[in-house]
Specification:
The protein is built from 16 helices and 32 strands. By secondary structure, it is of the alpha/beta class.
């Protein structure tokens, strides 16, 4: 109907390969004709790819999405970004990166009305700190991307259209690119806004785009399909239309990366080495990490060939289950090979022309090859990789050849391919002195055996190992938890800590080291008029612990909080098992942020023990969990604030069998206008 005839119609972001090796010539002619016609239909121009200041994208092979809460990236103890520590870890494990997507928004966004732009300003050190952090990446030759979210329409308005806001903030901090979260191609309006800003950045949409958008979206992510052998690997539609377009192949939840890495290598494109997924650690296995190290090293050393306009995918090979791409240059040709068989394939692999003065370098093994009857023989490991470079100047690649020869002494099979989760542990909480009588304003909860049943409300992760947290009695983190717990007697605050309570603490001289957003609504050391009996907010977990210590108390363990709210009858809410709108504040859905209500405003919300204001007013700090890379707090009770327009905002957890997991970075960013706390004390 569109008058474009092809036997190999694109399937999403990919074009199917030839059905059999015998079809190669017909297949190649067909997809070349399709490409030529497609460029006419979309009015394609590749001038953006010619811009000198943006050509680095054509060498941008490895890009992780990095959560700002990653413990290798920022040290809350010293209050410093630790860019070198972060990069050194990646250098050690898989050979380093070319760019990084610094993710500062989801999943915490929506806990209050701070927008994606506000959350960047709230990173440690503010804009000046972010600029300095970016400079640290640049010193190591790493470009820096930040995300933008078109769905963020329920938080505070920036006052200008999103393209203008994004271009302005990226110019302010000196970023190199922007990732369009959930974008199926970033529209031209963003490119125009960037051009007006005078600060060129690269646009990188997350999802497959309309073909005409290739003209200004110089990079994209690839969510690809991997048909099982003997079906030939598919090729990137975007790279086929524009060989200079950089795709970052991405499959965040996959634990076995062989398909992703083989397809990226076969297509001559990049890889999204994403391991910290919304605070859930999915580390690349040692075998895949070593494969990534070698792939990236060769790609960086042959980058000029990988953008060849004469790219010939599925160039003929000599053995079954092996596939190759040919990237011809002016005087050199690169072949990238993958072995889709689970077993090694030895012997003749490629037929090459006899040409005087031509040398054939086995880059994967770091050795020169000799032709035999016009054929090249070498080994490909099972599910492995190969690289052959035809060149008249082999000395140019001496360093690369030596490096690869050294690495090839250990085959990929010698590295473990077993995926392992990280173990989490509960942050230490010291017990308190045991008063003989109930302290003022506290309720005594007697010791008991309690069935602690709770699930995390994380939006993503399904029920994968590593989602949510790992309690002491569990061997791995998981979403759903059930345990009969012996709870010792304790006292709990009848109400959350109020502004009036916290002001007394401030009189003791407390001042946080990181004061950004601390008591944000206060002025001149005092809370607004009429707020005395409202829960104090804009306090970090460190602030809350300091207050608790000052009073001789501590923050509650989550199971203590839940038992004080639920008792032993398994009720859904503190007041019973049916929702009662008169027991909690009316949810607020505006783009600004109203204050919480008084802590005693809803007596109908009392728990079986008479503990008040446990659900629906402000979230409440409880326990903290960490592993080598991630750190998060468990929040209980939900809040009054419900931004509208997207299901990606921080989800509520009003039910007593649900909790929120709040990623922790630094007090400046962790503090929230909908997050407070109450204290407990151990009892005799």
């Amino acid at each position: 109907m569109l008058a474009q005839d092809t036997r190999y119609r694109p399937d999403g972001e990919q074009i199917p390969g030839p059905g059999t090796p015998a079809e190669f010539g017909t297949w190649l002619a067909d997809i070349r004709q399709w490409r030529d016609e497609k460029k006419v239909r979309i009015g394609y121009s590749g001038t953006e790819y010619d811009r000198p200041e943006l050509k680095w994208t054509q060498r941008n092979f490895i890009q992780p999405q990095m959560m700002v809460e990653d413990r290798f990236f920022y040290d809350p103890g010293t209050g410093k970004y630790t860019v070198d520590r972060y990069l050194n870890d990646l250098d050690t494990r898989y050979g380093g990166i070319d760019s990084v997507l610094v993710w500062h928004v989801y999943p915490n966004i929506g806990i209050d009305n701070r927008s994606q732009f506000d959350m960047l300003r709230d990173m440690p050190g503010g804009i000046a700190g972010v600029k300095s952090m970016i400079a640290d990446f640049h010193k190591r030759g790493v470009k820096v991307f930040f995300p933008m979210m078109p769905w963020d329409q329920g938080t505070r308005s920036e006052g200008v259209e999103m393209p203008e806001a994004v271009a302005r903030q990226m110019a302010e901090i000196g970023a190199d690119g922007v990732n369009g979260d959930t974008f199926s191609g970033i529209p031209k309006t963003f490119q125009s806004a960037v051009d007006r800003s005078g600060h060129p950045i690269v646009l990188e949409p997350e999802n497959s785009m309309d073909d005409e958008m290739l003209a200004w979206n110089l990079q994209s992510w690839g969510y690809w399909k991997y048909p099982a052998a003997p079906v030939a690997p598919m090729i990137s539609k975007q790279k086929w239309i524009e060989p200079r377009h950089m795709v970052q192949v991405c499959r965040r939840w996959g634990r076995d990366k062989v398909d992703d890495l083989q397809y990226a290598w076969f297509n001559g494109v990049g890889y999204e080495s994403w391991e910290n997924i919304w605070g859930i650690w999915n580390q690349i296995t040692p075998r895949d990490a070593e494969a990534l190290r070698r792939i990236a090293k060769i790609e960086r050393g042959t980058a000029d060939l990988l953008v060849s306009p004469d790219w010939e995918p599925h160039t003929p090979v000599l053995q079954g289950g092996v596939y190759a791409s040919k990237f011809p240059g002016r005087n050199e040709t690169l072949y990238t090979l993958i072995n889709r068989n689970e077993y090694s394939v030895n012997g003749p692999q490629l037929r090459v022309p006899d040409q005087a003065g031509m040398h054939y370098l086995d880059l994967w093994h770091g050795a020169e090859l000799e032709t035999e009857n016009g054929r090249l023989s070498f080994q490909l490991e099972g599910h492995g990789y190969g690289a052959v470079l035809a060149t008249t100047q082999p000395g140019t690649y001496a360093v690369l050849l030596n490096d690869m020869n050294r690495q090839a002494q250990e085959p990929l099979a010698s590295f473990s391919h077993e995926w392992q989760p990280l173990a989490q542990h509960l942050a230490v909480t010291s017990r308190t002195a045991k008063p003989k009588t109930a302290p003022s304003g506290m309720i005594r909860i007697a010791e008991t055996s309690f069935e602690f049943k709770v699930s995390g409300v994380e939006i993503e992760g399904s029920n994968e190992v590593g989602v949510d947290v790992q309690y002491a009695w569990e061997d791995q983190a998981r979403r759903h938890h059930l345990k009969q717990i012996a709870i010792q007697s304790f006292y709990i605050d009848k109400y959350p800590v109020t502004n009036a309570d916290f002001k007394k603490f401030m009189a003791s001289g407390y001042r946080p080291k990181d004061a950004h957003n601390f008591l944000k609504e206060w002025t001149g050391g005092n809370f607004p008029q009429g707020w005395a009996n409202r829960p104090v907010t804009w306090v970090s977990i460190e602030d809350a612990r300091a207050y608790a210590h000052w009073t001789g108390k501590r923050l509650p363990h989550e199971w203590e909080w839940q038992y004080a709210a639920q008792g032993n009858d398994g009720r859904t809410y503190p007041w019973g098992s049916d929702w009662n709108p008169k027991a909690t504040p009316v949810p607020y859905t505006g783009r600004d942020l109203r204050p919480p209500t008084d802590v005693d405003a809803y007596p109908a919300g009392a728990s079986p023990f008479g503990v008040m204001d446990m659900v629906g007013n402000v979230w409440q700090w409880t326990d903290e969990y960490e592993d080598l890379h991630t750190r998060a707090a468990i929040l209980r009770g939900g809040s009054f604030y419900q931004p509208q327009g997207s299901h990606w905002y921080f989800p509520q957890a009003y039910k007593l069998t649900e909790h929120g997991k709040y990623l922790l970075m630094a007090p400046s960013k962790d503090r929230s206008g909908a997050l407070g706390f109450r204290c407990v004390a151990d009892a005799t």
